[in-house]
């Protein structure tokens, strides 16, 4: 549109959702939902008798779950890069729900020893695409809230990396609100890192106390 002063400049949406709900017939979403349902139904949970010889091993079903999850994460990433943001976001959300359930100790997959989602899926390559799908489908306030929750739950010691990816993906208003919230997120990250460091020191101290006895020197 032309005004007396020249062509009108298009303004960037300030936190406005830019994409409607995903097509329910989307094949990616059908596959992710089926995987989510199968995981909750225990289809991938395969245990075995644990001994000192196999406590580091994973069952075939656990390995298969990780491979299937990684494949779906890559498809969600491709959907986001192809600007199918609504489908990508829902797919990412469902997969992240499963990974968080694993970290809460739900019986999605079996670990012979203590384990977590980091053993079966690598989220690092997908964060930029996930943030892009969030930024394109939710408003600024919710975007900041989601980023805050993701950083707190998945970025121990790595908040700055995730915040950079979230800012890069966001709109102007989303970036502004993230900058305002960044200091509190970094503080939480530092506290989490100190907690992790303290836990490592305690574990190492316990091992040092136990090791001599186990080696027959106590």
Written description of the protein model:
The protein is an all-alpha fold. It has one domain (25-47, 55-192). It is 61% helix and 2% strand. It is built from seven helices and two strands. The chain has helices spanning 27-40, 60-81, 85-103, 127-135, 140-154, 159-169, 172-214; strands spanning 2-3, 6-7. It has a two-stranded antiparallel sheet. The longest helix has 43 residues, at 172-214. The chain is globular. Residues 1-17 and 190-218 have low confidence and may be disordered.
Task: Write a concise synopsis of the structure shown.
This protein is mainly alpha-helical and 218 residues long. The protein is 61% helix and 2% strand.
What is the strand arrangement across the widest sheet?
1-2
Radius of gyration from CA coordinates = 22 Å
**Total E-strand runs:** 2
Structural class: mainly alpha
The number of helical segments is: 7
Overall average residue pLDDT: 78
User: How is the biggest beta sheet arranged?
Assistant: 2 strands, antiparallel
List keywords for this structure.
218 residues, single chain, two-stranded antiparallel sheet, mainly alpha, disordered C terminus
Please give the structural blueprint.
Layout: E1 2-3, E2 6-7, H1 27-40, H2 60-81, H3 85-103, H4 127-135, H5 140-154, H6 159-169, H7 172-214
Antiparallel strand pairs: 1-2
Helix pairs in contact: 1-2, 1-3, 2-3, 2-4, 3-4, 4-6, 5-7, 6-7
């Amino acid at each position: 549109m032309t005004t007396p002063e020249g062509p009108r400049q298009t303004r960037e949406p300030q936190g406005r959702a830019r994409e409607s709900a995903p097509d329910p017939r989307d094949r990616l979403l059908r596959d992710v939902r089926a995987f989510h349902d199968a995981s909750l139904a225990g289809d991938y949970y395969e245990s075995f008798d644990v001994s000192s010889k196999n406590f580091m091993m994973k069952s075939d079903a656990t390995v298969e779950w990780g491979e299937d999850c990684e494949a779906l994460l890559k498809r969600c990433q491709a959907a986001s890069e192809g600007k199918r943001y609504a489908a990508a976001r829902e797919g990412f959300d469902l997969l992240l729900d499963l990974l968080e359930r694993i970290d809460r100790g739900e019986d999605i997959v079996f670990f012979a020893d203590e384990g977590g989602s980091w053993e079966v899926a690598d989220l690092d390559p997908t964060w930029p695409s996930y943030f892009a799908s969030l930024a394109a489908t939710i408003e600024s306030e919710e975007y900041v809230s989601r980023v805050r929750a993701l950083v707190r739950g998945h970025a121990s010691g790595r908040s700055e990396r995730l915040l950079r990816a979230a800012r890069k993906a966001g709109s102007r208003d989303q970036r502004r609100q993230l900058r305002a919230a960044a200091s509190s997120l970094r503080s939480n990250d530092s506290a989490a890192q100190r907690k992790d460091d303290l836990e490592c020191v305690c574990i190492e101290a316990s091992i040092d106390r136990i090791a001599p006895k186990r080696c027959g020197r106590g």
